[in-house]
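## retry 2 of 3
previous attempt timed out at serialization; input unchanged, resubmitting
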Amino acid sequence: MTHGYESGRLNLPFVGIATFGKYPYQPDWEGLQADVAILGAPFDFGTQWRSGARFGPRAIREASTLFAFGHAGAYDHEDDVTYLGPGTRIVDMGDADIVHTDTEGSHANIEAAVRAIRAAGALPVVLGGDHSINIPCIRAFDDHGPIHIVQIDAHLDFVDERHGVRHGHGNPMRRAAEQDHVTGLSQFGIRNVSSTAKEGYDAARAMGSDILSVRQIRKLGVEAVAKRVPEGVDLYLTIDIDGFDPSIAPGTGTPSHGGFLYYEVLELLAILARRNRIVGVDLVEVAPDYDRTGTTAILAAQLLLNLIGRILHARNA
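## retry succeeded, writing output
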């Protein structure tokens, strides 16, 4: 029973079921009617050290309720824009089915889910899971046409094969670069001791990658960095939470000091959202058990909601 609220139930952040942003849950993947569909990919069998990112989607959803804007959207006084206002069509479709210890089967289920989102004409926003979940996400765009990948990450993730493993979380950007529909990569935030040897960097550049560290990006500035991303091509954004500094994102399996701060990434992505068409997003490697404060998941949710708002605003401008 409600008490005369003009727009229905309040559905405050601490009430009810923690869907992403408190948006409607849609388990019928054949009946998706949305501009944006949130998909969980709770898979972390690709990790090389600390697992736990399988609980990332739940943590991000829980954190996102903090930013459940209600009926009026979110007014940004700096931009003088109300993002995610009335009429925003976002649904949470739950998680892709994950089969324990079965990488190929789990990846196939993630790919099928992303294809269902694309078939409905919605923007897929995928919550990882380790970074290997990007492999099936990119495969699901094989009938789309050219896409350029923008990666925010501490690690290059361009290992071809290690110990016979080709589909772990150190491989996704190499697997992406091999796809005919991927025209190039912008790999931003790569720094310090990485998971990829020099040969991997050489191969990445030979296959069309533009690689910049956090220090290089700060020297150039975000506007100059955005200009390095090709215009006139659709973008897929893959965001590893360890691209951020562990002082604000400790809850990840492979933290690396010297990372981005929040606005550095948001401002870059906001420029790209205004200039290019963004056709897919994943955010990976949130492992909540390494962060008892929950701030890592809050960062992930805050970034995604602000990014989604800017993508939708740019499409409707």
